[in-house]
Design brief:
The complex is a heterodimer of chains A (206) and B (118). Chain A is mostly helical and 206 residues long. Chain A is built from seven helices and one strand, in the order αααβαααα. Helices cover 65% and strands 18% of the residues of chain B. Chain B is elongated, with a radius of gyration of 19 Å. The chains are: A mainly alpha (206), B alpha+beta (118).
Chain lengths: 206, 118
């Protein structure tokens, strides 16, 4: 009994091609870690509290990845999509480095720092929900992300001379973006592959 | 011209054109491999139906099925063979040609008149 066999080729191609992108909950532990970084309860950045929370975030990400594999299966893309992951990682490393280097070595003002932050925020906002890149939703998400980043900068870094307040603003903005994007992607995945699957043994062709 | 369109339509490969198998082959054509669970989710078929369709496609040489264990769990990976890739590409091209020719198709004049009076 076929419940809802879909033969819409565009949907099938889109979901299959973008499947690794849709596994959004994998971003949430990292996002929560970024949100937690500025909390004073964790102590300074080099403290054990931060290290342990980072290890916990990585462990939860791994567990979420396993859950996705069991529940939704796996797809190996035609071309390994290194671009998104590497750009995200490079951005995560480059922004704090730029903040530290620019502020300490050249005394660059907050305008430059904000420009770097805004560029990174827009890169995240556009690259994560690629599935929506053709619709107005991506533009709205980008505006929300950019506005959140700007508001956080103004609120947290009021008189943003100190590196700490800028770092906190960056961390909060990045964390909020990751959690938001992860939740949206997961919702898209559920809408695309939300069909009920009956349990049976063995799970494979007879 | 009308005859050509309908002859082409009846000449479609039924093994590929069946909706569930068309969905499976289309999905496999845009990835390197996919596993059984993903195909189950994507198509909404039951396990039994999916197994049957995959077995037919494998027997026809259109897909390759590999079984392995991930940890202690069995995992079935499905990929297109070169023949399967060629078959699904050809099938979509043919459907596209049919779509174009059916748009250009007009009923013969005597049939139109017959419809009007009948």
């Amino acid at each position: 009994m076929a419940l809802h066999t879909s033969t819409d080729p565009l949907r099938i191609r889109r979901v299959t091609t973008l499947f690794p992108v849709f596994l959004g909950l994998r971003l949430v532990p990292t996002g929560l870690w970024f949100l937690a970084v500025p909390l004073p309860v964790l102590g300074s950045f080099a403290s054990w509290g931060h290290r342990l929370s980072l290890v916990a975030a990585i462990a939860v990400t791994w567990a979420v990845d396993r859950w996705y594999r069991r529940r939704y299966g796996t797809v190996e893309p035609e071309k390994l999509s290194f671009g998104r992951n590497w750009s995200l990682l490079a951005g995560l490393l480059a922004v704090p480095a730029a903040l530290a280097f620019g502020t300490r070595a050249f005394g660059l003002g907050p305008a430059v720092v904000f420009a770097v932050l805004a560029l990174f925020a827009s890169a995240i906002a556009f690259s994560l929900p690629r599935a929506l890149a053709r619709g107005p939703f991506a533009a709205v998400l980008f505006l929300v992300a950019a506005a959140s980043g700007a508001a956080l900068l103004v609120v947290v870094g009021r008189g943003p001379e100190s590196f700490g307040s800028l770092g906190a603003a960056f961390s909060l903005a990045t964390g909020a973006l990751l959690v938001l994007a992860g939740a949206i992607e997961h919702r898209l995945l559920r809408r695309a592959l939300g069909g009920r699957v009956e349990p049976a043994e063995p799970p494979g062709p007879q | 011209m009308s005859g050509e369109v309908f002859e082409d339509l009846s000449g479609l490969d039924r093994l590929v054109h069946e909706p569930a198998r068309l969905a499976l082959l289309t999905a496999l054509s845009v990835c390197r491999r996919a596993d059984f669970m993903y195909l189950l989710r994507l198509t909404g078929l039951t396990r039994g139906n999916l197994s049957t369709h995959l077995a037919k496609l494998e027997a026809a040489g259109l897909v390759r099925i590999e079984k392995r264990f991930v940890g202690r769990r069995p995992n079935t990976l499905v990929s297109l063979t070169a023949t399967g890739r060629e078959a699904i590409d050809r099938h979509w091209r043919r459907l596209e040609e049919l779509r174009r020719s059916s748009r250009a198709w007009t009923p013969p004049e005597n049939e139109t008149k017959g419809d009007e009076h009948g």
